[in-house]
């Protein structure tokens, strides 16, 4: 009998952890340079990217790993035993238990074929090509110790966003990102005063919005990039963003779901809002939090009290 059979949730969670480990580090690489040298020349950027090549290689390995585990999760959802298809595991006539982790599972090269054969939702050709390219890069980095010298973090940024949409089309990107941060070693320091998962995202949010093109933005959030964003006051205050030097206008994670309801992509919360021009002359905000909100009577753009 086989023991410790994996579940879909275990594998899917592990895939997201690998994905966001790579993603968050990639964002830090991009944001560090944007923040330190906003007006840099192309040459300086290239030098910086070249200094990041070891980290970029590790991030590519994480992307490949995330894809492999996410595909295994899909197979596992049908039956975990399908993960043993085609692997030469020797069957024993003796009684006793075998740990699942000791068995060979389907090879990475056969994962797309297995998913497309045993599940109702085949993966797209575009994903299949991206995955096959990633595996080659991963193998190069892991087995031959050769880095991909030309790895461009901007291309990797687009790749990660495409992979997320391929792998988790129904999931909430910012909520998954935050959930990952809540499970890292840094979560030990999250006191929601001087450190929080919201702060970690806030530090790279400007770079994320700036680099995400219109089409990927709408694939990730299911809204047009032109739709105005507002500050979710719950995330802003609960995540103690006010204790950072990040301006409130740069921490906008919510959109209008209807005329008087705001939906936040980061916490998934919905709150009541009213249409009012902000009393602060320098702010162009036109929405104020409603009476039923946790932080009522504040501008949803600048946070200023409306009295
Ligand atoms: Zn929120
Ligand atoms: Zn305002």
Termini separation: 69 Å
The amount of helix comes to 40-55%
Radius of gyration over all CA atoms, rounded? 22 Å
Counted up, domains total 2
Q: Describe the main β-sheet briefly.
A: 4 strands, antiparallel
What topology, given as strand order, has the largest sheet? 3-4-5-6
Mean pLDDT across residues = 92
Secondary-structure element pattern, one letter each? EHHHEHHHHHHHEEEE
Write down how many β-strands occur, each being a DSSP E stretch of 2 or more residues. Answer: 6
Instruction: Report the total helices.
Output: 10
* Shape descriptor: globular
Ligand roster: zinc ion
Unreliable residue stretches? none
As a percent range, the share of strand residues is 5-15%
Return the structural class. Answer: alpha+beta
Topology:
Layout: E1 2-3, H1 8-36, H2 42-51, H3 53-78, E2 98-99, H4 111-118, H5 125-143, H6 153-167, H7 173-181, H8 197-211, H9 214-221, H10 233-238, E3 254-258, E4 261-264, E5 270-275, E6 287-289
Parallel strand pairs: 1-2
Antiparallel strand pairs: 3-4, 4-5, 5-6
The structure holds zinc ion (2 copies).
One zinc ion is lined by residues 232, 234-235, 253, 264, 266-267, 269.
């Amino acid at each position: 009998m086989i023991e410790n059979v994996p579940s879909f949730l275990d594998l899917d969670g592990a895939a997201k952890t690998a994905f966001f480990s790579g993603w968050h580090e990639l964002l830090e690489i991009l944001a560090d340079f944007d923040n330190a040298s906003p007006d840099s020349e192309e040459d300086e950027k290239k030098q910086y990217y070249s200094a990041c090549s070891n980290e970029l290689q590790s991030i590519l390995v994480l992307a490949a790993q995330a894809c492999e585990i996410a595909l295994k999760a899909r197979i596992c959802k049908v039956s975990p035993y399908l993960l043993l298809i085609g692997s030469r595991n020797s069957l024993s006539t003796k009684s006793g238990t075998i740990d699942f982790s000791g068995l060979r599972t389907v090879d990475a090269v056969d994962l797309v074929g297995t998913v497309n054969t045993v599940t109702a939702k085949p993966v797209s050709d575009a994903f299949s090509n991206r995955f096959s390219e990633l595996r080659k890069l991963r193998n190069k980095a892991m087995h031959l110790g050769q880095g991909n010298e030309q790895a461009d973090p901007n291309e990797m940024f687009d790749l990660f966003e495409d992979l997320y949409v391929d792998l988790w089309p129904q999931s909430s990107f910012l909520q998954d990102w935050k959930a990952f941060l809540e499970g890292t070693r840094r979560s030990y320091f999250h006191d929601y005063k001087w450190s929080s998962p919201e702060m970690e995202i806030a530090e790279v949010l400007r770079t994320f919005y700036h680099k995400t093109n219109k089409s990927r933005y709408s694939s990730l959030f299911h809204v047009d990039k032109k739709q105005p964003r507002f500050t979710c006051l719950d995330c802003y205050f609960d995540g103690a963003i006010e204790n950072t030097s990040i301006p409130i206008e740069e921490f906008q994670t919510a959109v209008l779901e209807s005329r008087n309801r705001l939906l936040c992509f980061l916490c998934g919360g919905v709150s009541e809002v009213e249409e009012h021009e902000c009393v602060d002359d320098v702010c162009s905000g036109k929405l104020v939090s409603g009476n039923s909100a946790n932080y009522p009577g504040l501008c949803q753009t600048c946070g200023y009290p409306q009295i």
